Amino acid sequence: MWRYGSGLVYRLRYWRACREAEPLMGQSLYETLLPDDAAKRDALFASFPELQQEFESISRVSNRIKIKTDDWAGDLLPGLAMKIEALEHSRHQRMAYALAFSGLAVFSVLIYSVFMLGGETVHGPTYVKQATPREESALSQISTEACDLVALGETERAAELLESAINTHPGDKHRADAILTLADIEYTYLQRYERAYEIFKRLEQEHRDVFEQSWTTDKRMRMLTAAFPDAFEPLRELEAAAHCEDPLHGYENILVNYPDKIWAEEAMRQMSRLIARESETDPVDTVQMLQRLRNACVHPVALERIDLELGNYYCDSLDAPDLALKHYAQAAASRHIALAAKAREALARLE
Questions:
Q1: Which of 47, 77, 115, 201 has CB atoms 3.0–4.6 Å from 269's, for a disulfide?
Q2: Is residue 154 a contact partner of residue 146, using CB atoms and an 8 Å limit?
Q3: Which domains can be identified in the chain, with CATH numbers?
C-alpha cells in the first residue's frame, strides 16, 4: 500500500498535469503551438520538471528519426499539412497528437533499450489522455472528488464512491474516463488486482475506443492477464520490490524466479531506471546500461538472463552476431531449463 501524504498529493497533481500536458507535448513535436497553448505547456513544465525532462528526452530521439530521401520519391508533406491545418481546432486532431505522442514514446523507448526508462514506476498512476478541456458533468465532478479522497488517504471510500457513480450514470459522457480512473485506483493505490482486472475488462468491452487510446492501459491489461493464472502474485512481488529497502535486490529476485516470463522484462526495466538515475548513465547507450545492470546482480540466473538480453540486443539491434554469440553461450549454460532453452534457440538461429 502506498504511504499517503505529500508524496501522494504530488502524484495526483502530476497525474492531472499529465492529462493536460501530454497532447500539447505531442503536438509540439510536429508543429509550433499557438501562443496560449505554448504558455500553458511551459507553465506545466515549470510546475512539474519531470514533464519537461521527459519531453526533452523524447524530442532528442525524435530528431534522430529521419526518413531518407531515397526511401520515398513523392512528397506527402503538403497534403499532410493541409489536413493538419483543417483540423487545427478540432478535438480529433488533439487526440491524434496524444496518440502520436504515446506511439513515439514507445518507439523512443525501444531505441533507448529494451527497458522503459522514462516516466513513473510501473505501479504509478495512469495518465489518462484528455485532449481538450471539456464541460463538467456529474461523473467528472465525482471523479475529481474521488481523487481528492485518495489524496486524503480515504482510498477505499474513493473507489466505492466512484463505482457507485459509474453505475448510476450510465449515459454520462465522461463515463469512460471515470472507469479508467477507478481501474487506476484499484491497480495503483489499493493493489486489488482482481478488481482492477475486472474494471479494465469492463472498459475494454464498453468503451474500446478509450481503452485503445492509452498504451499504459494496454500494458497494464497485458500484465494483469499474464498474472491471472498465478492469482496475480507476480504483480504483488513487483509491488513489494518497488517499495522494499533494497529495490535492486528485490527486482533481482524476480529475475531469478521468472527469467523466462514478462516479469523478468519488467524487473529489468525498473532496475535500469534505478541505475540510470543513481549513476546518471545515458539511457541511449543500451549496452552500457545492460552491463551496469549485470554488474549490479549476483545470482547466476539473473546474470544469465541479462546475458540473454545482451545477446538479443547485439543480434537484433546492432546486427553483431559475433558479439551476441558469447552472451548466448553463457545463457545457454544456465541451470534454469526454460532460460537455457531460449538461449539455445537463439544460438541455433545464428548457425
A1: 115
A2: no
A3: 1-60+86-118 (no CATH), 138-230 (1.25.40), 233-350 (1.25.40)
